[in-house]
UniProtKB/TrEMBL annotation:
It comes from Cinchona calisaya. PROSITE patterns: PEROXIDASE_1, PEROXIDASE_2, PEROXIDASE_4. Keywords: Calcium, Disulfide bond, Glycoprotein, Heme, Hydrogen peroxide, Iron, Metal-binding, Oxidoreductase, Peroxidase, Secreted, Signal. This is Peroxidase. Disulfide bonds join C46-C126, C79-C84, C132-C337, C211-C243. Residues 36-341 form the Plant heme peroxidase family profile domain.
Amino acid sequence: MASFLDSRIGFVPCMLLVLLMIVSIRSICVRASDPPLTLDYYKKTCPTVLEIVRKEMECAVLSDPRNAALILRLHFHDCFVQGCDGSVLLDDTITLQGEKKAPNNNHALKGFRIIDKIKNVLESECPAIVSCADILTVAARDAVLLVGGPYWDVPLGRKDSKTAGYELSNTNLATADDGLLSIISKFINQGLSVTDMVALSGAHTIGMARCVNFRDRIYGDFAITSEMNPASETYLKNLKSMCPPTVGEDNNESAMDYVTPDLFDNSYYQILLRGEGILNSDQELYSSILGVETKKLVQQYAENSIAFFEQFSASMVKLGNITNPETYVDGEVRRNCRFVNT
């Protein structure tokens, strides 16, 4: 039995390597060229764009620190579906099915009114100049910075799509119960590496998770991974009190980082080291038998916040550079982020 297990564990890295090679080839085919984005894109046409976005985000985060996580999640869900093209912001119409009501987005995405407000200010200052996709990308950077996270320069020049990807929202986005290989494949399909995946998962250091997304975890292997020390027992008891084992109270929420829920730091990774990740998909990064590389990265970021900040910044630039090539042929600058121009 022991020899079989040893051989099986030895086989895991080979399986993972093959998967990464296959998906990487697919990714190269999809992402063959760099996006036409520049840091000074609005220098002449709307020089105050960054100041306006920052001011509006300061007001939003000051009114409620949770707004930072809402905007960061919106940006992520936008970029993983058709690229960072503002498609997640589109409302349903008679002729267009948006992404907001897709199963992976429904009840999970908020913060749209914050983007609406920023857009309204920019339309007064620079009419028909700044795309909703760019607004969301800059707002996500500022959201992180305003709750203690790192700064990074945001290349600009995205166009807004005239289409949305309802079905892609169901297939491209990782779910709370995805296994590690599934999560890795979804990131690599976007041109993002395993390192990017672990670093970007650190965004869960802010924000909330709904009961429907952590029910299986707390009534599953949470007790095993956390080894049920007294503190973990209390934490688990509290989670179960708000999230019953059967259907009900699905939208009750708990912080994904219960230590510093409104501060962007590396405590998320320290929670994973204790086996207390609230989502299966999070804890898989450290506890999965397949997570040879991801476990090392979790340990590194838990011990070194500077290393986490540096990699998160670099990975966020890569995420923001996932573009929708169609928008450079048939894209636009929406006057209202919720609707295609008429």
